[in-house]
Amino acid sequence: MAILYHNPRCSKSRQAVALCTEANTDVAIHLYRASPLDYETIFSLLSRLDGDISKAIRWNDKAFKELESPEVDETSIESVSRFLSHHGHLMERPWLDVGTSTRIGRPVETLSELLQ
To answer: What pLDDT, on a 0 to 100 scale, did the predictor assign at position 98?
Structure first.
């Protein structure tokens, strides 16, 4: 079963939920803000990510800019996983995991291929 990592306050994330519903694919919704992801889960998502791992972090988010000297190497899966396991609210969304691969839905339409 696919998993959509979702934040209901995000319009793109809500669009991804609608896309999953329209695709008639069995997708579990994981509210990652309410139930944060651990290092191992994030590492697994990043290791199967279809795209650049640096896109997993919301670099331009006000909360990121307020962090005191955030230590994250955007080219290292270990570093990005460690950062997001401590600052999960800065994870980019929506993020779809279909088991064999994962994709960040920016733009949301890029998730369609994984839902077929």
So the answer is: 96
